[in-house]
């Protein structure tokens, strides 16, 4: 095997490397392995191989998060099936190469997929153009039918057990929000949703979206959950105005297929609340510096206030 492999490859066991080679083609050999930034619930690597056709790059996800696997033991199968459906979207998405659902081959569950061109851009030259690209791309995902998909949307938080967080400077807002999310769920036609749609999962080449990655949580569900998840992310990364501009762009692209309801924004907001707000660790890998946990608290308060105002007028 080629001796130009870098030190990062030591993080892959020989059985994993053998599985990658066998999955791509037995005439291939691994030339390098690079840890990918941004992953917080699994280990992601870019694996470069050489074969008779030339150089090929693939992405390997190793699901080493015990909590995730305890909740979803078929996580590798889930992502593999998600990637198959995602191919129907009018956007570039990774193609599944192989998966090890139980870890019987690799030691832990693993997913192997093709690598997309492009890079994450969290500091766009034109924010309005960037938001337009994010919004249009999401409508293309939502255009995919998912009637036969076995994974369905559910809330990550137990809505009946929500409590006012101690960090918030506006405790009076929370009971209003809790009453809404605990109330009747709006009736919507489900479609294929990404379930973790945010700017760090969207790739760009120049000023154009070149693909969407990280389909491990995709499911059949309401469009508003994806929109809301991206909005709360944008509110933390930038401000409420940016989150609102994304919503306006999405509404314009979606047309009659989408009817906005702040219920989904509030549910998506509650879904991210696991302890005091902190700066998302993945952002630093893409050049975002200067954010603090205190800023996240303040921006989430401001965003919640904007959502309550949408409901109460």
From TrEMBL:
Aminoglycoside phosphotransferase domain segment(s): 50-251
InterPro entries assigned to the protein according to its UniProt record, in alphabetical order: AGP_Transferase (IPR051678), Aminoglycoside_PTrfase (IPR002575), Kinase-like_dom_sf (IPR011009)
Protein name according to UniProt: Phosphotransferase family protein
Gene3D superfamilies assigned to the protein according to its UniProt record, in alphabetical order: 3.90.1200.10, Phosphorylase Kinase, domain 1
PANTHER family, per database record: AMINOGLYCOSIDE PHOSPHOTRANSFERASE-RELATED-RELATED
């Amino acid at each position: 095997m080629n001796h130009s492999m870098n030190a990062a490859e030591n993080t892959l066991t020989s059985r994993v490397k053998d599985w990658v080679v066998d999955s791509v083609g037995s005439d291939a050999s691994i030339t390098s392995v690079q840890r990918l930034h941004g992953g917080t619930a699994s280990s992601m690597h870019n694996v470069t191989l050489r074969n008779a056709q030339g150089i090929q790059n693939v992405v390997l996800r190793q699901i080493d998060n015990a909590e995730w696997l305890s909740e979803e033991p078929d996580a590798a199968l889930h992502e593999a099936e998600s990637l198959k459906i995602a191919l129907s979207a009018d956007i570039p998405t990774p193609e599944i190469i192989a998966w090890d659902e139980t870890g019987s081959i690799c030691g832990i569950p693993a997913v192997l997929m093709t690598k997309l061109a492009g890079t994450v851009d969290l500091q766009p030259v034109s924010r309005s153009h960037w938001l337009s690209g994010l919004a249009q791309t999401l409508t293309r995902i939502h255009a995919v039918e998912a009637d036969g998909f076995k994974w369905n949307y559910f809330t990550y938080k137990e809505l009946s057990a929500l409590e006012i967080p101690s960090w918030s400077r506006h405790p009076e807002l929370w009971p209003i929000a809790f009453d809404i999310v605990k109330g009747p769920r709006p009736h919507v036609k489900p479609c294929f949703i990404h379930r973790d749609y945010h700017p760090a999962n969207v790739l760009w080449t120049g000023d154009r979206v070149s693909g969407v990655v990280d389909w491990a949580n995709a499911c059949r569900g309401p469009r508003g959950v994806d929109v809301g998840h991206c909005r709360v992310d944008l509110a933390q990364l930038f401000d409420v105005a940016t989150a609102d501009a994304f919503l306006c762009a999405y509404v314009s692209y979606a047309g009659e297929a989408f009817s906005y309801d702040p219920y989904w924004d509030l549910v998506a907001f509650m879904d991210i609340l696991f302890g005091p707000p902190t700066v998302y660790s993945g952002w630093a890998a893409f050049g975002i510096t200067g954010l603090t946990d205190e800023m996240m608290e303040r921006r989430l308060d401001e965003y919640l206030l904007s959502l309550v105002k949408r409901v109460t007028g």
